[in-house]
Specification:
Length: 214
């Protein structure tokens, strides 16, 4: 019969996952959490809406400079992995998502950026996941019943996440977040990275934040 069997992945889509050390997670998350809660108006205990986003300039704040270094180190790893020749890449925006119970993020992309990403500060029980959608249209034409839903046979992949986890992914990759079922705040920090030359000479980023919640 067969001398060899392989399932050869074609056109793979990557999400690059990094997990900070426990020490770095504790220190960085404390710094971020403290700063974010100080930015909230009204205070965290008086939040009435399900979902809150900060301004998109967190990367310009002093408290985020160590976080910036983490992002840039991870981004340079992706640039190397993808064999990209352009080295000038920069953080174009960085904002926090603070969700009370019921807070969701609808499917969206981050136009005019090369990479998008998210870092997790607090993920209360059963709130730690992000859903990515298969960007290809053709596989959806035939969907046979399956014994088990997997990333290979379904149109989406759900990744479980936890504090200290950093994800980078192509900015065109559609992603969303399920409702926070917890009474605790779910806090994450999202960001974009783009080639500096493109942002300066071709077109500024089109990501404006505040994606619809319904
Ligand atoms: Fe996003």
């Amino acid at each position: 019969m067969f001398a060899e069997n392989q399932a050869i992945p074609l056109f793979p889509t990557f999400v690059w996952m990094h997990r900070l050390t426990p020490e770095d997670t504790t220190r960085i998350n404390h710094t971020i959490r403290t700063k974010l809660l100080s930015l909230l108006t009204p205070g965290a205990d008086k939040l009435e809406n399900f979902r809150h986003q900060t301004e998109q300039n967190l990367h310009t704040l002093n408290e985020f400079q160590e976080f910036n270094q983490v992002l840039m180190t991870a981004a340079k790893g992706v640039i190397d992995f993808m064999q990209v020749a352009e080295e000038g890449i920069e953080i174009t925006s960085c904002w926090a998502n603070i969700n009370t119970k019921g807070g969701v993020t609808q499917p969206h992309t981050h136009p005019n950026n090369y990479l998008g990403g998210v870092y997790y500060v607090d993920t209360p029980e059963n709130s730690g996941s992000i859903t990515f959608e298969d960007p290809r249209a053709q596989p959806k034409l035939i969907s046979p019943r399956v014994h088990k839903s997997t990333g290979e046979n379904s149109g989406y992949t759900i990744l479980n996440v936890e504090p200290g986890m950093l994800l980078l992914f192509p900015a065109w990759l559609v992603h969303s977040v399920k409702p926070n079922p917890s009474n605790q705040l779910r806090i994450s920090v999202s960001f974009n990275l783009m080639f500096s030359a493109f942002t300066e000479k071709v077109s500024p980023v089109q990501w404006q934040g505040n994606v619809p919640t319904t």
